[in-house]
Amino acid sequence: MYHADEKGYYGEFGGAFIPEMLYPNVEELRQKYLDVMYEESFKKEFNQLLKDYVGRPSPLYFAKRLSEKHGCKIYLKREDLNHTGAHKVNNTIGQILMAQKLGKTRIIAETGAGQHGVATATVCALMGMECIVYMGEIDIARQAPNVARMKMLGAKVRPAFSGSRTLKDATNEAIRDWINNPVDTHYIIGSAIGPHPYPDMVTRFQSVISEEIKWQLKEKEGRENPDYVVACIGGGSNAAGTYYHFLDEPEVGIIAVEAAGKGVETGESAATSALGKVGIIHGCKTMLMQTADGQITEPYSISAGLDYPGVGPMHSHLHKSGRAEFYSATDDEAMTAGLELSQLEGIIPAIETGHAFAIFDHKKFKPDDVVVISLSGRGDKDLNTYIDYFGLK
Amino acid sequence: MNRINEKLNSQGKLLSIYFTAGYPALNDTVKIIQDLEKNGVDMIEIGLPFSDPLADGPTIQDSSTAALKNGMTTEKLFEQLKDIRKSVSIPLIVMGYFNPMLQYGVEAFCKKCHEIGIDGIIMPDLPLDVYEDNYKATIEKYGLVNVFLITPQTSDERIRQIDTASNGFIYMVSSASVTGSKSGFGNVQTKYFERIAHMNLKNPQIVGFGIKDSETFQQATKNAKGAIIGSAFIKHLTTNGVAGIGSFAKSIKS
Fold this sequence. Notes:
heterodimer; A: alpha/beta; Rossmann fold; 42% helix; B: alpha/beta; TIM Barrel; 9-stranded parallel β-sheet; 12 helices; 46% helix; globular; EC 4.2.1.20 (chain A); TrpB-like_PALP_sf (chain A); Trp_synth_beta (chain A); lyase (chain A)
């Protein structure tokens, strides 16, 4: 009941609200994606690349000092150690193989922080495919290292000049590109958003995260199910993958941490579950931040990757049904949690990921609770922001 | 009979004009509609602006952004249009994206359209299956014609489904593009126009996207009942304001 139904609905959320121009592409994908994903040859190639190219399985690491500090047993799922430095590559590997199966030769993607753009540019280089990444003009300026990486990898980075010039607008531009290039192009969406089947497809590609947690935790703790899994949420791809195999395990508590920005009530926030209402964004029905008149509003977060006014339809359903607990962490809490992780465990997380670690400001765990946190990305791309914020120069 | 159906039954090719409500100035809506009718336009699509118009190119997007900045809202538009039927008799269609309609309340939105004398709606991101499962009954209850789009990539099978579900006309998108991005028609379009014409659909077709002047209007309406101009008219408004609407409208059918 927490998975997508045939039409891509999670409860009342999801579906495919797309203009007719996109219908043939989305429908082709809808009809074929499961068959392709279940093909033995596809699974073999996907798993092989995850192992040899991405470096999976990613470790499940017992964070001893962090556990002592917060009085529970904390395990970190080290997605930051993947090739390209985040969980994003799990999905782009899957989708580039999907694009090949569908006979597509040209790849487009949107990106906010640049992690998904880099992961897409990487797999396009790997497969020798043309790659165009749309990125908001503002994000291009604040994520310069990732822009350089994409260019080094041979991708074209096209700025989105419209609206707030961030992730939402980059997504609009990518969708427009797909409308203009309906035959040869596959759109690799990076988050668990978009029209059906994207949220389900992205979630399935990312579900390797929770699949590994299960057997890794069994080795370490003698049980497959932790008491809690924790992830940060923007659109929600790392969270979807982290939760996937625990959704139907009621003893596992599911925790989502959104970006509160400067505070939920300040008007500068991206805490969609607190501030959003049901609506349509980028082809799906989900919770989104909007005016009373149905205009999508501009979110704010210090982390470009969480700076999105919606949340994936699965997460809207987990929120509404009460299956998941939702919290939000401010910029300050996330930055402080990122510094704490750096200095207690020697791991500098992405600022997005720092939000998940701010859970300890909001929830007290019991000493024998086993808490698995998705360490979704590393912080190299954020060093300048950290340095400026903490005055480390 | 709905004004749209009456107009579709009339002789001759139809010129439909799209404009974004609230642009260039917030209160230009009524004047634009009146001037278009006076100058021989057959049907009008009143664009309800949206923050994220993903099927539109830069021209309509910029006009939407400007309209929202000017203060346009769904409520405001309905207020501006409340007496429109005292002065205008051609078919009026509201075109926009589904989220603002959803937030207004689909039933309330349709009811308001009916009260004002709006004849139809075009919501490109309200797809056929969602329409049929959830909203068809409400939209029809208020006597509104719901218009679906087809594109060169739409399969014959789906075109038949859309034809069955339609009760006015089919909005035939001329090429694989967002609005305003291409102009002029080549062989590919001509073949597509002919293919659709040979399908003998029950609903007439009106071609949109890529029509900007008399020549493209002639090409588009060779097989179809009419054509829609959007971005080219918005560009005209951007350059000339609301003063030269008549000359623009007259130049198309000449």
